[in-house]
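Deliverable D2.4 — example input (structure tokens):
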């Protein structure tokens, strides 16, 4: 290769290295900038409202708009300068339809929070199909009428291929009669049978053990559960209240 060719190759190589380093430098500035903006928004909000339960401030798909997630699951929005706060839903119309970005963010957050709850702390009624076609996670209260109505259809849901995972949510709170009943079910040698009998109004006795009910109650509150049954689909969709089994299967896309 001629001397000129070597110089051209060297210049080309150095140019590529320079471009790569420039990209990395620019990217690091962007990340630092985002972190600075997020902290700035949070600091401004806390100056105005010191008790605001901010969980996270994060960038959105809109360059100037940042999402403010509160610890109770509420989502707000702020501009990048922290001058304005927005309450409401944001829709993406770029694909010619209304894509609810706020609800998507809520669903993703619910799904992630539920994934932190281990299955060995749940009472699970598995599907009767060789492989589950869908799984629902239900926050339940022993003394809730519609929870009992839903539980009477768990067998049908299992036959339709739906696994039902229960978490405790005694609406009257820790230490209430409902709390004691649901703790007794969780502490039973056969939790599935005990829960079923308790929901039929039968006395399952007073049992106590190390249990996850208080933790599950706190999780439910963080997920925005305000009543029971509160049904969560695998993608994080929240369905508040009772749904008939076959309609549930349709909503889950398995009928």
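Example output (designed residues):
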């Amino acid at each position: 290769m001629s001397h000129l060719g070597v110089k051209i190759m060297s210049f080309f190589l150095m140019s590529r290295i320079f471009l790569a380093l420039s990209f990395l430098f620019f990217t690091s500035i962007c990340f630092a900038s985002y972190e600075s903006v997020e902290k700035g928004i949070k600091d401004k909000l806390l100056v105005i409202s010191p008790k605001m339960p901010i969980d996270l401030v994060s960038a959105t798909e809109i360059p100037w708009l940042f999402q403010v997630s509160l610890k109770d699951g509420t989502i707000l929005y702020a501009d990048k300068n922290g001058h304005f706060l927005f309450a409401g839903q944001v829709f993406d119309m770029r694909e010619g339809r209304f894509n609810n970005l706020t609800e998507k963010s809520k669903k993703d957050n619910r799904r992630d929070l539920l994934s932190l709850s281990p299955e060995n702390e749940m009472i699970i009624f598995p599907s009767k199909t060789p492989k589950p076609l869908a799984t629902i996670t239900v926050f339940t209260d022993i003394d809730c009428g519609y929870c009992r109505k839903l539980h009477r259809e768990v067998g049908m849901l299992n036959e339709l291929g739906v696994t039902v995972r229960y978490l405790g949510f005694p609406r009257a709170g820790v230490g209430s009669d409902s709390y004691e009943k649901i703790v007794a079910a969780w502490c039973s040698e056969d939790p599935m049978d005990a829960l079923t009998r308790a929901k039929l109004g039968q006395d399952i006795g007073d049992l106590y053990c190390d249990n996850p009910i208080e933790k599950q109650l706190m999780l439910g509150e963080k997920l925005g559960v305000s009543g029971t049954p509160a049904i969560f689909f695998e993608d994080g969709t929240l369905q508040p209240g009772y749904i008939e089994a076959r309609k549930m299967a349709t909503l889950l896309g398995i009928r």
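Residues 3-48 form the longest helix (46 residues).
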